[in-house]
Design brief:
Blueprint (H helix, E strand, L loop, with lengths): L33 H10 L6 H25 L1
Length: 75
C-alpha cells in the first residue's frame, strides 16, 4: 500500500467520522476531527455550507499552527 505525503486539508473516501483514510503521524502531532474544523470555521463567520466551514476552519487552524511555531522560535 502506498502512502503519499499529503499536506493541508484531507479529502477522500468515507465520511467525516468513518476513519477510512490512513495517516502516518510524527511524535507530538495532533489531529483535529472534521466536525471541530467546521466548528472553528463557523465560529469565524463561515456560512451553513460544509465546504465553506471546512475552508475557513482550515484557514484558522493553519493560522493557529503558524502562531504556535513562531512562539517556539522566539522561546
Amino acid at each position: 500500500m502506498d502512502f503519499p505525503r499529503m499536506n493541508g486539508p484531507i479529502s477522500g473516501p468515507g465520511t467525516e467520522t468513518s476513519d477510512d483514510i490512513p495517516a502516518m503521524l510524527s511524535d507530538g502531532e495532533f489531529v483535529v476531527n472534521a466536525k471541530a474544523v467546521r466548528g472553528v470555521g463557523k465560529l469565524n463567520g463561515a456560512g451553513k455550507s460544509k465546504a465553506e466551514q471546512r475552508r475557513e476552519g482550515a484557514r484558522m487552524m493553519y493560522a493557529l499552527q503558524k502562531a504556535g511555531e513562531q512562539a517556539m522560535r522566539k522561546a
